[in-house]
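We now fix the convention by which a protein and its fold are recorded. Think of the row as the fold of the chain written in a discrete alphabet. Here is one such record, which you should read through line by line.
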Amino acid sequence: HDRTMQDIVYKLVPGLQEAEMKKQREFYHKLGMEVPGDIKGETCSTKQHLDSHRNGETKADENSNKETSEEKQEEDNDYHRSDEQVSICLECNSSKLRGLKRKWIRCSAQATVLHLKKFIAKKLNLSSFNELDILCNEEILGKDHTLKFVVVTRWRFKKAPLLLHYRPKMDLL
């Protein structure tokens, strides 16, 4: 599922997005199911509201204020799903720790190595995420590195998924 490509297609084909949302709403109503929130939130009036601002029209009414707050609420509930995504394989590099049940994850490219440490520590019931090192190409990654940075600098010309190893922290001093 490529969101960027989907956005480009929606911009190139007039009315496609509205037609797709309408079909999806009809589908859920036909089955008697509740329409998911992301489909409910898509309205033609939001697009018209944004287009009127682009054309220099500055008509402020109650509906535009409601739409703006709905857009903000929808953005707040996005949880970085619309960000660029990174596929990762997390493997254990030590006999002292067990492997994850599900070692394949997909998350935002804005996530940091610290987020991964916390995720792994939570899944393995470790007392602290500080007990872990995460490595890429046998090089320890800094906790503030984003996954995008790791992909660009450490995983340059290799294919997805990004292979990361974790192990207990080693004190060298």
Summary: The radius of gyration is 22 Å. Residues 42-62 have pLDDT under 50 and may be disordered. The beta strands are 85-92, 104-108, 132-136, 139-140, 162-168. Residues 16-31 form the longest helix (16 residues).
